[in-house]
């Protein structure tokens, strides 16, 4: 009976793989598409193109993508704020199933559920080739949409809380964008680590969202003297670390909110790049630490990347973080997704789904 069950499982698996090959490789309906850009600029530069299925290079796998994550870095690359090769594809994160593997691939096989983050660019596609050694096995407990929402931002939250600054019990954090997509993961994870979190939002309507995510206190940018508020909230102690994703407009207030030997983490520039900092300023404000981390520096090494992703998925499986999606767009409406993210309308992760 056990042998019969095992044979049935293998047969069903082979039929599943055969079905995907027919659906994606043998019919016109399975033609693949990608978003292509030939110039930087507004969301209108994102154009849909057919993808030709070329022979897989050794070490690559062909992925049928089910859910594609949209990140603010994509917006910066599309606009030209962060240079990328043009013409070409765009997008850094997706989840789907392996349809085919090239020579020398041993870590994944046809039919596997996988996800990935980081380059090569080209995640905005219904199908694509991708380096197999950078594919992450997706636990059965997590959906493709979970992975599309969690992987890139989860890895970012992980290194910011565990590597850039070791957040732990009793640490006091100041986090901008507390109602945004990244903070959907950072804030509950930080509170799980028993940190005290002061969130900053851009409008009154976002205060409740930030509180629901676990902020101990929330302040609206522009409605108060933030360093004075921080001083009051901390009894004059100020904060251990600031995560500032705004940039130019908030940089000085962030430095002024830090305690002696505090750490300033500049993680974005939605208001523009901060002015250069004289090193003497860091000394005069209390021997502060200043860093500008990137996911590439924390997840390029394969072993480090896989370890961070594994912790992110385990944290999601434990219910500490969730992949609640703000909105899903079809791939053909990617420009609308970028507009929502760029206008700060989005209150959480955005994913694209191929049609």
Q: What does it look like?
A:
The protein has helices spanning 2-25, 72-79, 144-164, 183-192, 207-212, 226-233, 251-256, 279-284, 295-299, 302-317, 334-342, and strands spanning 33-37, 47-50, 60-70, 88-89, 93-101, 113-117, 127-131, 136-137, 172-176, 196-201, 217-220, 239-244, 258-266, 289-291, 327-330, 350-353. With 355 residues, it is α/β, with parallel strands linked by helices. The protein folds into two domains: 31-151 and 298-353, Quinone Oxidoreductase, Chain A, domain 1 (Alpha-Beta Complex), CATH 3.90.180; 169-293, NAD(P)-binding Rossmann-like Domain (Rossmann fold), CATH 3.40.50. Strands 3, 5, 6, 7, 8, 15 and 16 form a seven-stranded mixed sheet that branches. α11 (334-342) links the parallel β15 and β16 (350-353). The two termini are 41 Å apart. Residues 1-29 have low confidence and may be disordered.
Number of strands: 16
The CATH class designation of the largest domain is Alpha Beta
Characterize the largest beta sheet: strand count, sense, and whether it forms a barrel: 7 strands, mixed
Query: For this structure, what is the CATH homologous superfamily of the largest domain?
Result: Medium-chain alcohol dehydrogenases, catalytic domain
Could you tell me the strand content as a percent range? Answer: 15-25%
- Mass-distribution shape: globular
Low-confidence stretches: 1-29
Order of helix and strand elements from N to C terminus:
HEEEHEEEEEHEHEHEHEHEHEHHEHE
Give me the CATH architecture of the largest domain, please.
Alpha-Beta Complex
Q: What's the structural domain tally?
A: 2
Task: Give the distance, in angstroms, between the N- and C-terminal Cα atoms.
Answer: 41 Å
The Cα radius of gyration reads: 22 Å
Query: Helicity level, as a percent range?
Result: 25-40%
Tally of helical segments:
11
* Strand-pairing-aware structural class: alpha/beta
